Write the structure tokens for this entry.
Amino acid sequence: MKLAVPFKAVKDNILLTQDNDAWAYFNIEALSISDNDEEGIAKRQTQLSLLFDRLADFEDFELRLYNRDLDLVNRYKELQPSLATDMGETPVQMIVDEISAITATGVSQTIERFVLGIKLHNQNSGKVIKQATNAMNNFVDELAGWFNYEKPFDEKLFDDFRTSEKQAYEKVGYLDHTRRLTTDELVHLMRNNFIQGQLHDFRKVGQERDIFKLSDTVIDDGAVSGYVKLVNDDNVRYVAKLVLSTTPENITGFHLFRLVQNMSYPIDINLKAHYYKSEGIYGLSVRAGQSLKTASNNVNERYQAEGFSSSKDDNTVEIAEVLNDHISEKKNFFSTLVTFTVSAEDIETLHDRVANLIESFRSIDVNIVKPIGEQKRLFYYDLMGADVSQNRYWVQLLTSEGIGELLFAVNQQVGSNIGFYIGRGAPKTVANSTQDALDSSKRLVFFNPLITNEILDGSTSTTSPNIMITGKTGRGKSYLTKIILKIIQLSNAKAIYFDPKQEMRKWYSAVLNDKTFKADYPDEYTLLNNVRFVTLDVSDKTNYGVLDPFIVIDVSGTRDKRNLTRNLKGNCDKKFLNKFTVIMVP
């Protein structure tokens, strides 16, 4: 493979390569599934394996998990129209303080995105014609370069792939909530390979259309042995490329994409798959038959010579038999190359992350290696549109079901996409301490209680969210409730909180009476001072109707309709009669 940038042009969600091949890219919305939801996981695996079967006709596809900047500032800007208007600049200032606090934690401010790329068919030319055309185009491009002349690019080339792109989109649509990448998203994804975690404005990067600028980076694999150094102006990032060397013999339960997301630092994954045809002289069927014959002969020879066969030979025979069974069942096979990208600002941190990743997978009998002398080659293998179908290194042969087991586009995200920060989701079910749980997590959880329900087919008319907080005693339910109340205070909404213990009044009063609190935390003081406390005495009839349409009434003497009506009329104004929720006590 020639070490060169493979892409030449982009339009919509289509990338055109230097060889005049084309790839279409689609955003796959992640499905949130808990580790304990075995039924949900099994259903998703079936969906994925069926999708990959459908993609066999395209021969080549790639699955990308990449970490994109959270873009906190613009996330919070989207909340601005719903902020409270009765507290001046307090809500905005508290959001600024919140962003600063998140940044100060040092937690990676990224979010995982899942992208599926499919190599398209050129509908207007046969294979022989296409090869001849590519050869001529490459010669003309090279000739033009000799004379410092740039040949004009003809965007009509994209039209040759439109039909194939539509067919690919129809197949991808088998999964819910999939969509075509926008041009800005595709451009940012292309550039992401060359910046890998360096501080940047992803919106601005996505608006770039100069292909040469997208790869304008110094790629140095000689600065530190076994790593790649990326230099963009004053920004430096060290990158390590690792490959999946071996998988478990039984790949069931090997949820690769889920495992990587549970690491405490960002890791990008790129799985490139090439359809392995069964028929033909070089097809998988012939090779599998030869492997089974060779393995069986080795077992027989050893048994005749030594009276027993080795477990290694027995395993080889068993694997070859399973492979032949799968072929006879007409299952689709793909040769896959799986690469991992880990980056950091300094070599020491990167070295620790690489060692941690390798050891984590070794504990489940999976080998990940970092080829010291192949870092630059792997860097170019990872680029969008790179053809690795002829690669013979680190290749894993997987069925569509096997790739489905890797759980692509599945996460455990909780919370809202746009909202206020309320904490972090920890992947560890058991942690030694609170700090241990925090250190294990990079998932920021955002929450917006004002997001309305979706109205589907007229089945519901409510636009009020229903929130239930459950858990064991002392695990933070009350604390979370008060965080939600704080969020509501910052929003343009009203809330009523019933507090029989009057604990909030005691806490708030103690803080508001602290002479130093107002000076040290003026915004918090404004927020707390904006709460109105009302104590209702049920024995005092003047309190009746204060919380209409919520009411607690004395139902004695209401066994008949006349007494009930008379009791209601005595306790509140007639205008509220049609809004009451009445609690009857027998």
Notes: Residues 61 and 118 are 4 Å apart (CA to CA). Residues 453-462, 549-553, 564-586 have pLDDT under 50 and may be disordered.
